[in-house]
Amino acid sequence: FWNGGVTDGSTSTFGAAARKAGRLLDFALMRDKVSASDLLERAFTWWDGAEPPRFLWLHVMDVHEPYLPTLRGLSRPHTAHYDTLKFFRNRWSLDERTTRRIKRLYDDCVGYLDEQLQGLDRFLTDDPIVVMTGDHGEAFGHGLVGHAQLYDETITVPYLSTLDRPGDGPIRHLDIAPTILDAVGASMPEQWE
Predict the structure, then answer these.
(1) In 3D, which of 82, 123, 78 has the Cα closest to residue 105?
(2) pTM (2 decimals)?
């Protein structure tokens, strides 16, 4: 029934309680969370030992919930971690003060990630192709903690690249892989859109 999460899709009270308990356990153990500094160090170790040509994809999770910058290496103290527990108990009915404090934690996580990404220059050898983007934003501007709604701030994300901009309109994540393949002279697999 429960191996790191509810797998039966139950909507029962028991199922809902089990899902909440699982999220709380994951939160308490910081299960499957690797900080950007650890991830970059592991990636550099691999990069340094691998023969070119190399492909490296990193997905940093420091700006994903739970927003806990002090557990990820910031020296600045926080008093808002209690609000993170309130968020986990009921994310859909947070008061304005709690939402504001959760956003402050989020902003501090963004600041921490900015500091860590300064180490990316260690990978900038051998004329690499670099693409940086976000996977989503958060709906704080609408008084929400999350990204399940299609607001501009949840679907508009940064895109930085050493490649030419693909097309004239907005860049979609769907455009990134074909743009990289084109830059290295590879053809797009037929099954791709």
Answers:
(1) 78
(2) 0.70
Q: What is the pLDDT of residues 113-133, one digit of tens each?
A: 888 888 888 877 777 888 889
Among 48, 4, 41, residue whose Cα is nearest residue 26? 4
Q: What burial class does residue 138 get, using C-beta atoms within 10 Å of its C-beta: 0-12 exposed, 13-18 middle, 19+ buried?
A: buried
Confidence check: pLDDT of 45 > 90: yes
Q: Up-side HSE of residue 115: CA atoms within 13 Å toward CB?
A: 14
- pLDDT of 186 reads 92
Determine the Cα–Cα distance for residues 16 and 74; give it in Å rounded to an integer: 34
**Cα 147 off chain centre by:** 11
Phi-psi region of 125 (alpha: psi -120 to 50; beta: other; left: phi over 0): beta
pLDDT in tens, 13-44: 887 777 777 766 655 555 556 788 888 999 99
Report the alpha-carbon distance of residue 102 to residue 5 in Å, rounded: 24
Q: Are 27 and 88 in contact (CB under 8 A)?
A: yes
Q: Where are the alpha helices (DSSP H) in 50-183?
A: 81-89, 96-117, 152-155, 173-183
What gap in Å lies between CA 147 and CA 63, rounded to an integer?
A: 12
The upper half-sphere exposure of residue 97, i.e. CA atoms within 13 Å in the direction of its Cβ, equals 5
Q: What is the pLDDT of residue 2?
A: 32
